[in-house]
Amino acid sequence: MVRFKTPHLLVRDIESNDLETLLHYYRQKVNMRFISDGKYDWTLKELEEKYNKINKDYLNGYGAFAIELKETGEVIGEAGLFNSFKDPQILELGYIIDSHFWRKGYGKEVCQGLIDYGFKELGIKRLVARMYANNTASVMLSEICDMKLTHQGRMPNGDVYFRYEINNPDYQQH
Q1: Suppose 151 and one of 63, 81, 82, 163 were both cysteines; which one would form an S-S bond, judging by CB atoms 3.0 to 4.6 Å apart?
Q2: Residue 117 phi/psi, 5° resolution?
Q3: Residue 155 in domain
């Protein structure tokens, strides 16, 4: 199912034939260096288990999705909305785009698309993005997409992280 479209991308549910491509991206250190623990030695079984766990929320409209180029049909990464805070009105947004597709504007399209989808389609209250401070591309994209820095902290290993948030201006409590 297509969750949303941007000028150049389709963001849709992950299908079984996407797994090998996504696994390849997950095994690239350059792609994973800013993702939580930086793990990049994924197995197909681990990735399948991750998606099975996360995507049980597909029925609620959120989870991990494939990012596909409209022009070629090529999967270039994943994007998602995640119930990280155990509150379906406050979701975390995230994305991984293969390094071969960086600096082409796709990150901005995905970030803004996730915000629009979360607010307009799902009607949620707030979106949160967490990132390492040295992930300057994600910091910049968060700010470009009108997210505000709301917290700064340190990981146990000493790395600085940021938390950005954006509230739905049209939020109506159900």
Answers
A1: 163
A2: -60, -45
A3: no
Amino acid identity of residue 107, one-letter, is G
Residue 46 counted as domain residue? yes
Range of the domain at 30: 2-129
> Which pTM value belongs to this model?
0.94
What's the number of domains the chain is made of? 1
Q: How far is residue 104's CA from residue 109's CA, in Å, rounded to a whole number?
A: 10
Note the pLDDT tens digit of each residue in 15-46. Answer: 999 999 999 999 998 988 888 777 788 999 99
